[in-house]
Design goal:
The complex is a heterotrimer of chains A (278), B (288) and C (229). Chain A is α/β, with parallel strands linked by helices and 278 residues long. Chain A is built from eleven helices and six strands. Chain A has a six-stranded parallel sheet, sandwiched between helices. In chain A, strand 4, helix 8 (184-195) and strand 5 (199-203) form a beta-alpha-beta unit. Chain C has 229 residues and is mainly α. Among the domains of chain C are: 1-60, no CATH class; 70-135. Classes of the chains: A alpha/beta (278), B mainly alpha (288), C mainly alpha (229).
Chain lengths: 278, 288, 229
């Protein structure tokens, strides 16, 4: 066995690349529809929060990500916005990541069109401003001053919905969909902990472990984690989307990586101590 | 335009993926284009969303104090003196403003968010006392009745009955000290011990010997769990991103996009193969 | 001159830093107005800070082209990409869509260049994570074993199908009301021991950040002034 494992350990890593490629591509073409998806407590908490707010609540959705995290966070954003529009909440969207501006606009417009939401009355897209935490500070004082115009150059003050929204603290909920910093941690530190508004959000898988402390401390309610979290949210709102469709590919990829970890360790222990071992 | 866009998108995606084979001219083209395009996009956003919105419109407006906006413009412009060695020192005033504002804002925000509130969430009572009030007892009674009703006539426990049982166990864990209450207390204790021991691990002012070493060792185990969880989640993140690209490539392989993906893929493989043949002998291989 | 070059920046930093920090603890109308003004100024200054970076990148690549250094042809792509985006950006008036809702040339270029380039750059990492799983992820010690075990539990628990086997087929749901389905186990791992460890790290980072901020405000830390007189 030992020579086999030694050979295995020395193989070109491009074989592993190929295996992973196949594991991800195969279910994209041939649906497996693996069962077992269940809402985790954190995703359920976000859903319950949106579900139980009175109709017409003012919600700020901050797109704090860019195309690099699109497959994880765009389905989250789509599912949350669908839910918000379905519950007839008033949505103000914006972003702290410059390269996400166009992508965010597309997601907001698409979900709003699905729900027949009217621009300026049911939702507004303010776009982006530089300055990260300073934007939050500025919005806490006066949103109209921070964003004198919306993303398309219309006067913010002229939009009917924005006449009733002046400061951050007037929002019933702030949702940050974040791929890193500036994101959830920035909104909590410079926003919700200081100006006292309800906070929730979603993040990439990489950041879930870092954001858990804020959920545990009650600084935010619930957390949608990664593509799986998005799939869970899609399941809760009964409208499957890109995340649910992608779970097969993600699942096979995961099993392959677990197999690689096990195989790598078996090979390590078999060849350990011998000449040329790992 | 849609077809042209699809071909460009597929081409650039495959250019970037070609790095998996090895560093090659396709990847370098994609990499450098990315830098230029991103800066160009950023500049346009800055021009329209900041310069026009927040400076130009104010200056050309009617407000009596509109010229005050020239102060931050001046501060910002001082940053650019970096490029003129003789007066580069003037940029320090602007840096002082930026750094001072950031530091001033960070102190109270970090203290509140990352120290005070986090400490409060750690220092919770480690043992929960049962709520002996009639209200709590009544809530448990109601939950029990609902659970009994749910399982009436059912042969085996399904999702609905299980949910009713969970609600009953939840209520009971408040009015009595149950296994669920003990579990919650255990969770609180784990958090407390974890934070305490991790802090010990990072405390380098005393030598890690005796009890300090024991605490520090436990701290390391907690950190290992953190790293392990982070790795597990990172895998999910990276696979999701990969799936996203595969999905787009699949989409663009349709006839309506002129079979962009398969055509470009074949062309690229042909070019890379030609390059490989040409450079054969010079290559040292692409070992791990 | 020394005052203007060294002492004035320290004074500006001290005044702005102190005023900003105090505003948090003295939330009067005046301090709120000041906070609004300063944050607005910061946003505008940030624009110039970004420009500073872009001009630097531009100068590096222009020099490379002028001197025809190795790889200079790639640098022309940086300039070309930049010019293409800026030109279509101005032509579209900075708008991502046309009035009829279709992508403008600026939006179009964004969708077919920036999105695939950026997304693929990070998607490639998936392959390296897989390679690392096989080559580097070893239980060489007890600590590494704990790390590995946690990672494997999270990896398996993140797959819905594992939960189907665990709860749906094996019927493992709870122990006296404590939920132990795979989803719950992963949630507990992330929400409890992981959160505790992360909080320990957060305390350290936060205290370090506060100490550094204080040193900056009081002029003890002066690295931002750079070298020279």
């Amino acid at each position: 066995m030992e020579p086999f494992f030694r050979k295995l350990l020395a193989m070109d890593r491009r074989w592993i690349f190929l295996c992973l490629g196949v594991a991800v591509i195969f279910p994209t073409f041939f649906k497996l529809n693996l069962p077992g998806l269940k809402a985790s407590p954190n995703v359920q908490a976000v859903y319950d929060l949106v579900e139980n707010m009175p109709e017409g609540s003012k919600v700020l959705v901050s797109f704090d990500f860019d195309p690099a995290s699109k497959p994880e966070l765009a389905p989250q954003a789509t599912a949350v916005l669908r839910h918000l529009f379905r519950k007839k909440h008033k949505v103000v969207a914006m972003g702290l990541w410059v390269t996400g501006v166009t992508m965010a606009k597309d997601i907001v417009s698409r979900t709003a069109a699905e729900a027949n939401a009217k621009y300026g009355e049911d939702y507004v897209y303010l776009g982006w401003k530089p300055g990260n935490f300073a934007v939050i500070e500025n919005m806490a004082a006066d949103i109209h001053n921070c964003f004198p115009k919306d993303n398309d150059g219309k006067e913010t003050a002229s939009l009917p919905m924005m006449k009733g929204i002046r400061k951050l603290s007037e929002f019933d909920l702030v949702v940050s969909l974040a791929a890193g910093s500036p994101g959830i941690d920035t909104w909590i530190a410079y926003g919700s902990d200081k100006y006292h508004f309800k906070m929730t959000g979603g993040t990439t898988a990489v950041n879930v472990a870092s954001m858990a402390q804020y959920v545990q401390a009650g600084q935010m309610t619930g957390l949608i984690g990664a593509m799986r979290g998005a799939a869970e949210y899609e399941m809760l709102i009964n409208q499957k989307g890109d995340a649910a469709a992608g779970m097969d590919a993600i699942s096979l990829g995961h099993y392959l990586i677990v197999a690689l970890v096990v195989l790598g360790n078996v090979a390590y222990f078999v060849t350990r101590g011998s000449k040329g071992g790992a | 335009m849609e077809i042209v866009g699809a071909w460009i998108a597929v081409g650039l995606t495959l250019f970037m993926f070609s790095f998996l084979y090895k560093d090659n001219p396709f990847y370098k083209v994609g990499e450098n284009l990315y830098v230029g395009i991103t800066i160009g996009y950023f500049v346009i956003q800055l021009w329209y969303k900041t310069w026009i919105d927040k400076v130009w419109d104010v200056l050309t407006g009617q407000a009596h104090d509109r010229f005050v906006i020239l102060i931050p413009v001046l501060i910002g412009a001082l940053l650019l003196t970096r490029f003129v060695p003789k007066i580069a020192w003037m940029s320090r005033w602007a840096f002082a403003f930026v750094i001072g504002y950031g530091a001033g804002l960070a102190i109270p925000a970090t203290l509140t968010t990352s120290v005070v509130i986090q400490a409060q969430a750690t220092a919770k009572p480690l043992v929960t006392m049962p709520d002996r009030s009639p209200g709590a007892a009544k809530a448990t009674e109601n939950a029990k009745a609902a659970y009994d009703k749910a399982k009436e006539g059912a042969a085996k426990e399904d999702e609905k009955i299980r949910a009713a049982r969970y609600r009953y166990e939840q209520s009971r864990s408040v009015s009595e000290y149950t296994f669920l209450t003990a579990y919650r207390d255990f969770t609180t204790i784990v958090i407390f011990v974890g934070v305490f021991c991790v802090l010990f691990y990072f405390f380098f002012s005393i030598e890690h010997r005796g009890p300090v070493r024991a605490f520090s060792r436990v701290g390391i185990l907690f950190l290992m769990i953190y790293f392990g969880a982070s790795y597990g989640n990172t895998v999910m993140g990276r696979l999701s991103l990969l799936y996203g690209r595969v999905l787009d490539l699949k989409d663009y392989s349709r006839q309506m996009y002129g079979f962009a993906t398969p055509v470009i893929l074949v062309l690229m493989i042909a070019v890379l193969a030609a390059l490989h043949v040409k450079n054969k002998g010079k290559d040292e291989g692409h070992a791990a | 001159m020394v005052f203007l070059k060294r002492q004035l920046p320290l004074l500006i930093c001290f005044v702005i830093g102190t005023v900003t920090a105090l505003q948090y603890y003295v939330p009067t109308n005046f301090s709120a107005e000041m906070s609004e003004g300063l944050s607005n100024w910061y946003i505008i200054v940030s624009m110039f800070a970004a420009l500073l970076g872009f001009v630097s990148v531009g100068m590096v690549h222009t020099k490379k082209i002028q001197r025809q250094e190795p790889g200079w042809a790639y640098s022309t792509l940086v300039i070309l990409g930049f010019l293409a985006m800026v030109i279509v950006g101005f032509v579209s008036g900075g708008k991502e869509t046309t009035p009829d809702g279709r992508p403008s040339s600026y939006g179009w270029l964004y969708n077919c260049t920036l999105v695939p380039l950026q997304a693929t750059m990070f998607a490639i990492l998936g392959f390296y994570v897989a390679s690392a799983a096989f080559r580097s992820f070893r239980a060489k010690s007890f600590d590494a074993g704990v790390l590995l075990a946690t990672a494997v539990i999270v990896l398996l628990g993140n797959v819905p199908f594992t939960n189907q086997v665990w709860a749906g087929w094996l019927g493992i749901h709870d122990v006296a009301g404590v939920k132990i389905e795979m989803t719950d186990i992963v949630s507990w791992l992330i929400g409890t021991p992981n959160a505790a460890a992360r909080r320990g790290v957060t305390f350290g980072v936060a205290l370090g950040a506060i100490a550094t901020s204080l040193k900056i405000i009081f002029g003890i830390e002066r690295a931002y002034l750079g070298g020279g007189d």
